[in-house]
Amino acid sequence: KSDDFGGKFFHIEDSPPGIKQMKSDSQGRLYAVCNLGDKEGKVYVYSDGKWTVLLSSEYGFDCIDINDDGSKIIVSGGRQRQLYYSQNGGTTWINKLLNWQPEIISDENPWSTNNFFNHTGFIIFDKSDETNKRVYGGDWMGTFKCEDITENTTKWSKMTRGLEELCQNKILSPKGDNDLYCVGMDYGFIRS
Fold it and tell me: CA 136 to CA 139: how far, in whole Å?
């Protein structure tokens, strides 16, 4: 941690191992996911000088996103089709892939499979959606969009136009902007 914009860093005591990704909310809380292989995964929040576990799983997590105030959290990862969602700051969680089979509602390319992502490269809330219901996620199989992550059976659209031969690493949805930015392995940025 640095409290002088990177002039000097110091270790945060009791920091969790295996951190894969971090996000912060408008209140200054730090959220992190860890992946210790197929042994363990956890979601943490760092606030008031201490780490608190929000979610534990026998499989690791790779990705996390939160809304501005930290009330809505989405995490994914591991090889066991994990996509957990909380709409109360991490007090309770729903595994949106384990409890309900997702429905793929579009597949524009006949050559692509109807598979849903199973080892997530990214998961994000659409920052231009003030309801925090629209989510994007994906891996090397493609990019998917869910209009309402709160539905019991989530419906996902496969987004392939312009990404047909691209292994997507990350996607970004800037706040107040209708554009999406995708980063492809060995390709660079692509804008929708």
Answer: 11
